[in-house]
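Need residues for this backbone.
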């Protein structure tokens, strides 16, 4: 099929103004394809006998879904639009539809009573370390610090840990032949969260519009054409194959009420057809027929009976049950069906744009290339040849913000390993919440790119881990407070898994790492009520765990024993990663207690522990040591760089405050190289930005796009894993603005090639919002909005400007005679 440029397509469709592709309205924010996907009516799991772990492999069976579908979401439900011709198809998700938990057939005790009582073994492990017997220490750790819960389904037993699972799939048979299709465009508009499919067949122009509304909690799909009576459709819904239920039908409505076989979780999917002209009716199989309609709008709602619970009853198998999905979906559909399409669309767009439009990024805006007229896959292919495409780089940045809004809204669960999008009954790493960087990386861009509301689901999720995490902390470490382990689910799972491979299954500071996000949220928003009512207790409890977990050695130092550098290397008596995380949570707890003027005595304890923690160490190659022994290999290119946590996302290493340690971190990054999996390149991008090396950070950003990005701009580990998208967006922000070191640092890692541009509406700690404009690689104007009235300290190169602020006021800085000066307040 011949490629048609956006502008040419607009001319071709000419008088059909209603069908002009949305890309023509704003190509700056549009991801689009000029080829349809193949028509397919069978879900990826197929038909017939299904394996319990179907889909857990690391290669997705549906290449088109992973590479060329368009993701939509409202934080609760998600869909992937394939844009096929004869049979349109979209996968469907409800984010709380999980297998596992206490309501499996084995009961609540089988789920909860899985922590080993291993705290008493710590003294033997530490004695072994003292005697230089690391092998014994490692053996004791791997024998005692796992659990009986496997990560995989057990034959003949209920799957306790569970997995995020598909909510089914929709197909819409259109009757349109796949040959003789012209002017095909499948697009996703990032600034309106609308997906559109448009094409011509002979003399008929067809258009499909999709969005998922957060205000109305429904997915909306409208099929239109420029010829009356052209909509002859058959909509079919295929439920999750590991569930049972029944279809209920009315004239134009279908409702599927089902239960997952594994844990009896109830879920409801409700569909309503609203045609104009013609008619719609349902058959006994629950399919909706549309005949000779001028247009039709489908409304789809979904919900489960899952209830988030901060205080679960460990004896009650239904402690996470509390919603009637049949009632909630009925209410949503009834409310939405009373409104016309344009009103639903307008409400959706206004709600979404209120978040997305807060921040803009423009890079070399006067640079024009042929890439501006290419489809996204063609654009990406051209970029991989080394051709510059600054528009693609800014598009990827905004795509990360789009994905966060689509997969994480207040009132629901946080974004998981794939955000909200999944096309099978099981998936890579159970599509769970991975606590050794992945879920944390998902939220790196939230506050900096002015989406603090989108981080609230993570904070609520952390709250679900506290009560179970207290049991885990006590059983394994004899510690106060709470922690979590490598993998979590939506049912409060905080225990290590059954594997004895401690390189990945032992991560005691996963909980404290999560808790650092609590202070981070406060530091950006300065929401004192949040800190007082919710945040502080989470931080304090995590700090207490950290103190109790540490080994107070006879020489007076504190060290994390046993500890690991996740997914890499041996069991250690003081891994740098663990120490860096503990420093961070103790510093957060100290600052929080000062803000609230509470717990002065305990604050002194935290300060005392900090003073006596084992320090960062530099090894024989000049590298920041990863373990307590100097065993780093300069030829090691491992994807994890955990020992650089203090550089990013922490703040205890900096070129300005600790230049020697920053240089040692640089040596590590040089050794590890510039390649890796998608998410790892995202982390390295942030690390190079924190080292103020804009050109090297830019190289990592380019590598992420070239080597870790699919045609639809999804991050690829491989397989698809969404944290790389979020890491990339966060990294670009870190290149242009940093605020972790006690001041606002302007353009700290601006690469040479981004010589002109602007970044507006970004946040800095202290509740400041900034608009930054630059030309010839120097700032020309900076607008600082003060949200909390605290003093503002601006750093640029070797200059510093400090000035008092008032809440709600703007302050303008401009470059005069080569110097940045405050010109208006």
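Answer:
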């Amino acid at each position: 099929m011949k490629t048609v440029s956006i502008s040419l397509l607009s001319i071709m469709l000419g008088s059909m103004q209603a069908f002009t592709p949305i890309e023509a309205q704003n190509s700056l924010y549009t991801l689009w394809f000029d080829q349809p996907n193949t028509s397919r009516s069978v879900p990826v799991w197929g038909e017939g006998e299904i394996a319990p772990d179907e889909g857990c492999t690391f290669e997705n069976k549906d290449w088109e879904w992973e590479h060329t579908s368009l993701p939509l979401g409202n934080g609760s439900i998600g869909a992937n639009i394939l844009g096929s011709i004869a049979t349109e198809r979209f996968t469907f998700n409800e984010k709380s539809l999980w297998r596992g938990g206490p309501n499996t057939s084995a009961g609540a005790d089988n789920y909860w009573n899985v922590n080993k009582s291993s705290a008493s073994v710590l003294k033997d492990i530490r004695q072994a370390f003292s005697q230089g017997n690391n092998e014994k220490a490692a053996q004791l750790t791997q024998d005692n610090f796992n659990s009986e819960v496997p990560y995989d389904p057990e034959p003949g037993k209920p799957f306790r840990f569970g997995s995020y699972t598909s909510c089914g799939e929709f197909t819409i048979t259109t009757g349109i032949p796949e040959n003789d299709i012209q002017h095909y465009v499948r697009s996703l508009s990032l600034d309106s969260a609308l997906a559109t499919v448009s094409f011509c067949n002979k003399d008929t122009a067809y258009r499909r519009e999709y969005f998922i509304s957060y205000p109305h909690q429904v997915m909306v799909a409208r099929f239109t054409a420029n010829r009356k009576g052209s909509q002859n459709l058959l909509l079919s819904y295929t439920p999750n194959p590991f569930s049972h239920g029944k279809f209920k039908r009315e004239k134009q409505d279908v409702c599927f009420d089902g239960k997952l076989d594994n844990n009896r979780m109830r879920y409801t999917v409700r569909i309503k057809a609203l045609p104009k002209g013609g008619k719609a009716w349902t058959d006994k199989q629950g399919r909706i027929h549309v005949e000779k309609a001028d247009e039709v709008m489908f409304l789809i709602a979904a919900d489960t009976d899952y209830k988030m619970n901060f205080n679960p009853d460990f004896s009650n198998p239904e402690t996470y049950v509390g919603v009637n999905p049949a009632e909630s979906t009925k209410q949503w559909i009834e409310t939405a069906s009373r409104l016309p399409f344009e009103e639903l669309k307008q409400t959706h767009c206004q709600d979404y744009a209120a978040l997305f439009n807060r921040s803009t990024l423009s890079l070399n805006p006067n640079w024009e290339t042929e890439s501006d007229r290419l489809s996204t896959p063609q654009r990406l292919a051209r970029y991989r040849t080394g051709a510059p495409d600054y528009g693609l780089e800014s598009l990827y940045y905004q795509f990360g913000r789009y994905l966060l809004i689509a997969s994480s809204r207040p009132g629901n669960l946080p974004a998981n390993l794939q955000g909200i999008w999944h096309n099978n009954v099981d998936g890579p790493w159970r599509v769970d919440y991975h606590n050794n960087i992945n879920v944390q990386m998902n939220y790196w861009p939230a506050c900096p790119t002015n989406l603090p509301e989108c981080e609230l689901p993570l904070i609520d999720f952390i709250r679900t881990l506290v009560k179970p995490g207290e049991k885990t902390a006590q059983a394994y470490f004899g510690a106060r407070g709470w922690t979590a382990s490598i993998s979590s689910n939506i049912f409060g799972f905080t225990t290590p898994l059954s594997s004895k491979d401690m390189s990945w299954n032992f991560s005691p500071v996963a909980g404290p790492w999560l808790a650092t996000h609590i202070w981070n949220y406060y530091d950006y928003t300065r929401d004192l009520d949040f800190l007082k009512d919710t945040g502080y207790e989470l931080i304090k409890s995590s700090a207490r765990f950290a103190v109790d977990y540490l080994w107070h050695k006879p020489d007076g130092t504190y060290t994390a024993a046993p500890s690991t550098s996740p997914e890499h290397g041996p069991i250690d008596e003081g891994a740098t990663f663990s120490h860096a995380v503990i420093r961070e949570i103790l510093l957060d707890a100290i600052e929080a207690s000062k803000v609230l003027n509470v717990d002065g005595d305990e604050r002194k304890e935290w300060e005392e522990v900090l003073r006596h923690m084992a320090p960062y160490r530099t090894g024989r190659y000049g590298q920041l040591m990863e373990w307590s022994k100097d065993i780093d290999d300069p030829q090691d290119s491992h994807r994890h760089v955990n020992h650089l946590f203090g550089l990013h996302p922490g703040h205890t290493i900096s070129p300005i405050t600790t230049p020697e340690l920053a240089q040692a971190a640089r040596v590590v990054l040089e050794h590890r190289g510039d390649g890796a999996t998608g998410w790892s390149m995202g982390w390295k991008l942030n690390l190079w930005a924190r080292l103020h090396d804009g050109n090297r950070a830019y190289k990592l950003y380019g590598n992420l796009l070239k080597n870790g990005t699919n045609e639809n701009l999804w991050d690829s580990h491989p397989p698809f894993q969404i944290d790389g998208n979020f890491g990339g967006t966060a990294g670009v922000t870190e290149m242009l603005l940093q605020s972790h070191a006690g001041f606002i640092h302007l353009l700290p890692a601006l690469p040479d090639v981004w010589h002109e541009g602007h970044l507006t509406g970004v946040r800095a700690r202290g509740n400041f919002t900034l608009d930054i404009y630059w030309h010839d690689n120097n700032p020309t104007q900076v607008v600082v909005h003060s949200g909390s009235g605290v003093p503002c300290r601006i750093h640029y190169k070797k200059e510093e400007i400090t000035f008092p602020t008032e809440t709600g006021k703007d302050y303008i800085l401009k470059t005069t005679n080569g110097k940045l000066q405050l010109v208006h307040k």
